[in-house]
Amino acid sequence: MKKNGNQALLPAGLQDLLMPAAAHEAEVVRRLIDCFSSEGYDRIKPPLLEFENALLSGAGETLSDQIFRLMDPSSHRMMGVRADITPQIARIAASRLQNAPRPLRLCYGGDVLQVTGSQLRPERQFTQVGGELIGVTEDAADAEVILAAVTALENVGVKDLSVDINLPTLVPAIAQELGIDKEAALELRVALDRKDAAEVEVLAGENGAYFLKLLNAAGTAQEVLDYAKGLEFKGIAKSEFDRLVNVVDLVTKAAPKLTITLDLVEHRGFEYHTGTSFIFFAKGVRGELGRGGRYDSVSVDNVTEPATGFTLFMDTVLRALPKPKIARRIFLPFATRREDGNALRAQGWVTISGLELVENDRAEALRLSCSHLIENGHIHELGNN
Amino acid sequence: MKKNGNQALLPAGLQDLLMPAAAHEAEVVRRLIDCFSSEGYDRIKPPLLEFENALLSGAGETLSDQIFRLMDPSSHRMMGVRADITPQIARIAASRLQNAPRPLRLCYGGDVLQVTGSQLRPERQFTQVGGELIGVTEDAADAEVILAAVTALENVGVKDLSVDINLPTLVPAIAQELGIDKEAALELRVALDRKDAAEVEVLAGENGAYFLKLLNAAGTAQEVLDYAKGLEFKGIAKSEFDRLVNVVDLVTKAAPKLTITLDLVEHRGFEYHTGTSFIFFAKGVRGELGRGGRYDSVSVDNVTEPATGFTLFMDTVLRALPKPKIARRIFLPFATRREDGNALRAQGWVTISGLELVENDRAEALRLSCSHLIENGHIHELGNN
Q1: How would you list the strands of the sheet with A350-353, edge to edge?
Q2: Inter-chain CB proximity B338 and A255 less than 8 Å
Q3: Which of A92, A113, B171, B177, by CA, is between 20 and 30 Å from B357?
Q4: pLDDT per residue over A223-278, tens digit each?
């Protein structure tokens, strides 16, 4: 996936995928979705464009600045190009699929557009592939979506996968338990996210020692679970933590070789999450492969259901995979019978048909990047290719 | 592909594809593109959005009214959401792929948006799948794209396929040969398109008898080729017609069972075409499955190359296919081991995992539309499903 060589032709952050990147992306998307489908996640396809308010419902609210807006000449209402697919899934779950039995398993693969790229990620068009499990409160649901994503990523060839599991509801619950007011709790959360020990100590006041201890609750799953015994969670914090422990236990049992890390204070990017959340990484690959977690699926008309799900980011996923194999290309000299070509294609060859008589079929085959050609009815490999 | 049940939630002409339609569309797109790829058409993926002028180059000019426009906050230039993918292919062929050897074979599959639907076709979002063969003048190229599309459509299961081949350059060439001025020729072409014999006779004046004869040059390939002997084409008209005959001959030889019809006066929708053009139909299916033909691939910076290609319209293609088979769904009661599910999925089952202990696994399986369940390690078929 090289960047566009001629930037002036395309707006910043938009690019053409050429060969073989475009075919590779499509193939990987298909294999991921096949995997989700086999676990009962039914594929749906919302439109690229819909009324603005629907795109801004629930977690979509955070994307308000990122939506390209358009006036619909037919309804005179404001529309937006989707910047995320999850709010569309929530709309569909609450409308056309409101009577479908719960749990409702849905998956999708498609492109989204955002108004501005970031410095780290200049792209403005992304391919998202994801799954949502809607109408569920069980810990088994959280474990299922993590395992579904892990299985699919491993299936397409991602190596050294790890999942970082977070619990964005824990710090607010502890703060509430300790009687810290909302505003102070928010500041504290930001300092914890930054891992700024000095600031945490100042903001936490009499609870400084406790929050400093909490700050270190990050590492491998086993380390953190052992360490957390000393943190003595109470009330909601305890029940939230117990759920996390249960999810980690379910995931570990099903995928004993998976690297699981925990970070009990991480909160960034999980502002709308209501429980166990997670990010996927692959060793040596820059960026997140995907992320997800528990949330409230809120539709445009405010139907709310407990849900969990994940989104994979195809640009990072493709970076984590080996380069695609190039198919063997065989040159069919001009006037080769179509049935001969069909027979080769059925065997998996990519055929390149000559459209006119040329003096030297071998030279023509090489010029067209073929590795083989048909000569007198036989397949010949081209030497200097 | 049912229409949205709750129209108020989506703008007119936009719809959600649900299960199993979305999966079916994706599967058919994949199989079509696999077919084109096997004939050397490399998949590429241009972005959904680009600068307006690039979208309006060449044949894109006719779509000016159909493009949703957006201001790019980063470049302050006007962008548009693509209403057609062909102009994007022309841009790529002339820029990043300008040094790739010709003929250049490219294919694509993706969604386009149009500002207004028509009465016949209210949709504003379409899925296009197509192929372009760029840098070619040979008749074998015209035959190849027709055959590639036919093969792919038959491969995915379209029955009773026919191709209507047209030659939009013929009438202008005859008019020029007869010394009819441009404006009169244009009026005549419109009357011919409408098959309005009375009007044709009036407009053609002294050539009335000839054009009335031409008007009847439509029917099966053999009928029209026989009939055309009496039309005695001269000059450019003759050479254009000879090319058409050659293309028909090449297609007939390669696909002797294909129904081919010809219409020598049809011109509608081929305003930008420069030679043999065609439309695909399936018996009993409303609308065109796709269309294409010879054109000049004109990039935004006016690089021009002779080309031919086709676009398939997925909504019509899917209407021409039998309903997709629904995969067998098997219910895995709560706490079924993940490896047992993996084994079933590897055999092609869709598994639905129970997320909590229920009193009656069979009832739960039926509630979740499963046809089978695992009970004591064995697969049981559910009776009343």
Answers
A1: A350-353, A329-332, A372-375, A378-381
A2: yes
A3: A92
A4: 999 999 999 999 999 999 999 999 999 999 999 999 999 999 988 888 889 999 99
